[in-house]
Amino acid sequence: MKYRLIPYLIFFALCQGINAQFYETGQDPSSIKWLQIKTNRFSLIYPESYGQEGLKFARSLDESFTKLGSLFPENKVRIPIIIHNYTTFSNGYVAWAPKRMEIYPTPEQDGIPLDTKEQLTTHELTHVQQLSSLNKGFTRIMSVITGEQVAGAVSAFLPLWFMEGDAVFAESLLSPSGRGKTAAFQKEMKAIALEKSKIYSYDKMVAGSFKTNIPDHYQYGYQMVAWSFSKYNSRLWNKTLDFTAKYPFTLNPVNYSLRENAGLTKSKLFYETFDSLKVIWQREEKIIAPVNYLTVNPDKKKEYVNYYSPVIVGKDSIVSVKTTFSSTPEFVLINLSDKTEKRIFTPGIMYPYFLSGSYGKIAWVEQRPDPRWDNRNYSVIMIMDIVTRNLRQLSFRSRYLSASVSKDGIFIAAAENTVKNENSLVIINAANGDILNKIPVPGNAFAQKPQWSQSGEEVTIISLSEKGEGILSYSLKLNVWNTLIPPARNDLQSAFLRNDSLIFVSSSSGIDNLYILTPEKKIARLTNSKYGAYDPYPSGGNVVFSDYSVTGNNVCIAKISESQPYSYNEAKGPSFLINRFDTIKVRNTDIEIADYKPVPYRKFGHIFGFHSWMPFYADLEKIKADPATVRPGLTLMSQNQLSTVISTI
After folding, report:
1. What's the pLDDT at 22?
2. Residue boundaries of the structural domains of the chain
3. Per-residue pLDDT tens for 548-594?
4. Most CB atoms closer than 10 Å: which of 68, 152, 475, 641?
């Protein structure tokens, strides 16, 4: 009977695969000239405008391929990789029908202390290795009959938390940083484990909620994968992938494999992981003895509400970005005397939620889509007068990723990243948007969250380079850069110069906290947060900041005079599961950029890319709604590498 069921199961899986796998995210501008680098591992296709960065990306791919051999020793795969550098966000994805990796390489403003190329290549190539691991046994036989779509369909049996958690684990194990080594990445799960009487059910975590804050599958998936690596056989997930490839018709191959190799199920692993982490986090809480700070936002009444980037705009007033499950992000004006608030503006698409305010004005950056090309967008500077509510857009078709208004409200400092990955600090006239000065960042480090000093004579930025994150300041008067915090692997979130002292956010303690660096180069800790403190805004003897809780960020106030001396170092918190492993260091020092030979990529020579087929006729749109529309015949499916021509024959 089970063998009679196999054809039906295959057909069901293929229908699911059609729905999930045959897609494209849009096209790049038609005027782009493309280059291509071919190696025995990949074919890298990138715009000519990306220049030397394309060669650097190729080297990063080779290095990540080599490192991943320690986790997937049996896999050899060759895949096309397409870079879209005309967007202003960082992302990547891997699809298997047709087989390809697509990369959006602009670094993030809320990034981690790891070079973006290294993080993207390690993370996305892990997905490549996961999917290529399915090309064996039953799945491989079916791929002869149906093409690449069958691996994509079989991957539907793998939980998303494993796919992404395994990739985060790989980026953390195989690099000097990674999200598994950052405090912000685990704060949501930690708050739930410590504040709730018990962890949410496995089903609730997987299904999500429109009422309760559920950390995404990256966060809890990483913890589950890291825990399983530390307690069970390191080849546990390789065996799971192998079993899934050979026996997908069991419908729950992951549980079958986990039971056989570790006596586990998916839900049992979930509860075991977070029961153990709860004990670790409780022990850590007793050691750090966190402080509860004065909260000035209105009572949330147990609703999950976040207040980001608070800025003081009056003697008794703070403006903050507020997010809830029931409304779009909005700017709210908080009255400190009676803890009330009122909405003053609803912005367009903005992320991260970084707001700057001074002299009765607030400034921020919004995303603007290209009306024709999905793979090109812009980020523009917006400025608003708090009193008159007068709103102006200062830039158009620009790539400013964050902006800060000066103390006198006359200038804007913005972090710019070009399509060539050239990084600059730009000084702009706040009245008309004219560019007054453009200063390249030393070493072409990526600039994050510029902030004007209290004197208005300097601008600080978080710098991101291959060495990690550091803090730089630029003197407008002397036209020189100064290094305030050298680049390292602590996650730095914000920096603010006040009376020659630097206030900044760092993960040095294993939890994100506020610190102060004095002119004598001594560091003291300003906060001792339970889950994480962010977005400092000093005023007088106090600092306003966002403090994370189980109900989201609160707007809090701490006294600068209560700072405590602190031995500043790199975070090695016991609650980071990744610290149980030694970082695997593999580097191809003999790979030079000059070894790669880019050649023109001719679009007309790559119109067709046949990837899948079916031994029957099926209209792909109709089959999703009614599988009974299948007829005798043959179906061939084609999608070219730039997703400009999609064909079904």
Report:
1. 62
2. 1-25+607-649, 294-571
3. 999 999 999 999 998 888 888 876 666 899 999 987 776 555 678 88
4. 152
